């Protein structure tokens, strides 16, 4: 049975730098260009959400129309109607 010896100790990592103020990203958003970027991102997200809402509305209308047609068929031909 052999005893393995540990390798060299792991290197010491320096402590993270200490900031004396707001995080750097906050400074970027306070500039006019940062504000324009934030507004652009917000508008793109809002447009994406609106597209999802429209798609959900279209699917809901299709579902209701198909269900109504199925109910009409059952009312006219009875519960054993063939499609």
Characterization of the model:
- There is one protein chain.
- The chain has 83 residues and is an all-alpha fold.
- The protein contains 2 helices and no strands.
- The model has no long low-confidence stretch (mean pLDDT 83).
Tell me the layout of helices and strands:
Elements: H1 24-29, H2 32-77
The rough form would be described as elongated
Strand element count? 0
Proportion of residues in β-strands: under 5%
What percent of residues adopt helix (DSSP H or I)? 55-70%
- Counted by DSSP, the helix tally is 2
The quaternary structure here is: single chain
Q: What is the arithmetic mean of pLDDT?
A: 83
- Over the alpha carbons, how many angstroms does the gyration radius reach? 32 Å
Structural class: mainly alpha
The SSE order reads: HH
Termini separation comes to: 77 Å
Residue stretches low in confidence (pLDDT < 50, at least 5 long) are none
Reported for the largest beta sheet, the result is: none
Short synopsis of the structure:
This protein has 83 residues and is mainly α.
Please name the defining characteristics of this protein.
83 residues, mainly alpha, 63% helix, elongated
